[in-house]
């Protein structure tokens, strides 16, 4: 996506471009108070928090980041795996002196949030992790080999992502999103269509998926000492709620709340309900 964000992009007036090697990051900040860092999932951008962020900003300083290769963050190739992304977010957090009381991650963003807790010298205090439909399960069997391989082929081609971007109509975006069990407003579909039509964003999302390796993080889950909470939607067609339940069973201070009638983008479908749950947890952490 070209810089700067257009005026009709959510919170465009709050957008900043921050150069912190090797990326030129797109960061948005709302509100005042204890800091909360928001990390979207694969294929998303800061727009994913358009309903949640203003509600949290009543009592917190909310920091939203476009992940490497996504949205308006401009990135070099091959810095897209879990460990590399976490390292780069950590470098950005140090450069900007962020000290969040909580890191909220959606889907793959929840894996990044957990990965960041494994860097004990990064934070002045241990941030709480809140994962919304956390993507914490590797692909199984043949799919575990074929899907990353296909993503690498697509991401390595300058033609195929461009063809996909050209084919991304509002109808395509709506089908993809509803396939995850979520139903958005027309504005939500419009914003995702804009992302899907951008070749650089599509390439960044494919590179992320192609280089994603959860195994080290999954092995480290029992060592995580930060408080962790998971919110799932019982209609999630992308990451079944059992994934969060199985991950929580391997950690010492973790619980799971499942919301009826919501899909993978639960925080976009019903931000009020999700924020009410989040605030119950963050209020116990705020100074």
Largest sheet: 8 strands, mixed
Q: Helices and strands, in N-to-C order?
A: EEEHEHEHEHHHHHHEHEHH
- What is the name of the CATH architecture of the domain at 12-138 and 216-282? 3-Layer(aba) Sandwich
Number of separate strands: 8
Structural class: alpha/beta
- CATH topology name of the domain at 12-138 and 216-282: Rossmann fold
Mean pLDDT over the residues: 91
Q: What is the fourth-level CATH superfamily of the domain at 12-138 and 216-282?
A: Alpha/Beta hydrolase fold, catalytic domain
Count, helices? 12
Taking pLDDT < 50 over at least 5 consecutive residues as the criterion, the unreliable ranges are none
Description:
The chain is α/β, with parallel strands linked by helices and 287 residues long. It has a domain at 12-138 and 216-282: Rossmann fold (3-Layer(aba) Sandwich). It has 12 helices and 8 strands. It has helices at residues 52-56, 82-96, 108-117, 141-155, 160-167, 170-178, 186-196, 199-210, 215-220, 241-248, 266-269, 271-282, and strands spanning 15-20, 23-30, 35-39, 61-65, 102-106, 128-132, 228-233, 254-259. Helix 10 links the parallel strand 7 (228-233) and strand 8. Helix 4 (141-155) runs antiparallel to helix 8 (199-210) and helix 6 (170-178) packs across helix 7.
